[in-house]
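Quick board copy: two proteins, each given as sequence then tokens.
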Amino acid sequence: MWAPTAQVSDKEVAGRRVFTKKPYSGKNQYKTDVFLDDRLGTGLSVDRLGVRNADDEIVKALSPKGHSLAERMKKPFIGWAQFVVADLNKAKLKIHKTDAVGEENPFHAEVCRAHCQDQDDLYRTAFILAVISSNYDLLPPLQNDE
């Protein structure tokens, strides 16, 4: 299994957990809401999934966490809207390793949203992430027997 370093590399694949049965607004275009968290002053939680491709062992390890959170939220967990970190950097968005709040997750990271001063900024950032992630397939959760 890949072990993440302290610095998030451009070559890494990361993903936002998706908690809705209908994540798309059009053909393979993620809804902005998938990436919307309206709390100012916080980063946007994502999972580091591997280098160049998502590592199946990491996906298997993180899938139960997604399902557990989905149960508490009373929503379905269908996987990750994934992206390559280099694409975020091209859009002038930064991602950094952080500790997860409320769960043990060595693969946790956050998209920096320090530039967001109001709800419009949060929405624009979510829209950019939705556009970038729409270039990649939804990554479904895996079970340990897969």
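And the next:
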Amino acid sequence: MVPNGWDIKSIEDIADVKGGKRLPKGYLLQPENNGHPYIRVTDMYDGGVCTSSIQYVPKDAVSAISRYKISTKDIFITVAGTLGIVGIIPRELDGANLTENADKLTNLKVEQGFLLEMLRSPLVQNHIEAEKTTNAQPKLALTRIKGFQIPVPPLPEQRKIAQILSTWDRGIATTEKLIDASKQQKKALMQQLLTGKKRLVDPETGKAFEGEWEEVRLGDCSQVTSSKRVLKSDYVVTGVPFYRSKEIILKSKNIKLKEILYISDEQFNSLSKKHGRPEKGDILITAVGSLGVPYLVKEKETFYFKDGNLLWLRKINELEGSFLIHYMKSEIFQNKIDSITGGSSQKALTIIKLATLTAPRPRMDEQQKIASVLTAADKDIELLEAKLAHFKQEKKALMQQLLTGKRRVSLSS
């Protein structure tokens, strides 16, 4: 059921759908800008194209694929690999060649911004999601895209809807840029503070902290160990949470866990009595897969964790937990992990390897000051990320109303 004055139309009624083209056999893309850009799926994101890593068609191959170009008036949609990314190309890529893994909607008979939002909405994306789940190697055929049916209001209403939603897009894009800038600023600050290149002010003296820093081995200032084995058959419906690398990575990013495994209270108490349990100030760090993701245990947390997949720094002394966790998240420490695990085909961080890694040891009050500054920077980023999530959720709700006609726009302004 569509509002009065709206129509239901298929994509082929309002646009021509055409495919892209791969390079001829024997040719490779080149990084040098020769005026013939080629847009790949890896360059695409929801809404547009990232221009920082664009590759170019060799001049000898230009004529062979000259008919497979996309303009700023078109819309792209990915049809292989990651399905359903849609967007518009920037002005500087007008006339670029389009990958065979994407199609273009061209000769549009509707407002471009309106159709873009409709293709990004659940009305179309749910159809694409169904394609992903029903095929082992999902691919969107031209005929499939042509057959998508969407509600289409009159052109003035299309323009107004596109204008409203694009305002939200600008707010989202601005917030994303602020987050990226804040992360880069924090990264630079970490590099300075965690190497001693920049010294903070000692509140006791009102002057910058002084004194040389020592490097200490993690094995000398903590007990580096792991948990004891828990079998899948030990899992229960409810009890004490049991974390693997996956859960610790999510918790390190402050992402709420949707699914949790459990072991019984009796087993947890038995393991804790014999081998200890994670306590406030301990650090867990991923040892396989995504190596080196650290998590600082906070107070009032009761859980156990998978042996081997996670290593455990207990009874940490000489280093303040918040300072050490910031250091372990830094590029400086992550590069150290790469250097001791890079030689093996299947990377893994062992207790012995982790114990040999070092960390700087400023005075305890300087450690605490550094940690407080970096934690404040993290909180600023978290606030921006929460704002971004709110914007996206608000826009999603607005799309649902505007693109179905449940909420009509005023055309008087």
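Board note added afterward: The first strand starts at residue 7 and ends at 10.
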